[in-house]
TrEMBL record:
Coiled coil: 9-46
Keyword line: Chaperone, Coiled coil
Organism: Steatornis caripensis (Oilbird)
Family: Belongs to the proteasome subunit p27 family.
Protein name: 26S proteasome non-ATPase regulatory subunit 9
GO annotation, cellular component aspect: cytoplasm; nucleus
Sequence ranges assigned to domain PDZ in this UniProt record: 21-113
Amino acid sequence: SPAGLQNDHKALMKQVEEALHQLHAREKEKHAKDEAEALAEAMSQNQSLPQAFAKVNAVTPGSPASISGLQVDDEIVEFGSVNINNFQNLQNIAAVVQHSEGRPLSVTVIRSGKKVHVGLTPKHWAGKGLLG
């Protein structure tokens, strides 16, 4: 009978609707869990990065710093033997540069949230200083 078919259709549509609600609820839970895991991973990566003690605010084109690949906004975490534990002021860096003229220095920076190693050789060039 038409009334029986209509009731069957309503019951079937109700089952489909409930199944869709359950499916979307599971997807929402999965998405929230994935977001939480991604956030936790990002936080743990940030915590594993060493602390910077200086930030590069200028790099002169053609200078030893530029040739080495040092970039503006790089955050210095290690400059030769200088790191966050023994850094007091920029004189520490100047001393390392003077004693390393013509010899490569290992410089570690944080660039865009990643640790990057740069080989920098302080030397005389057309501009001022040994780094630029």
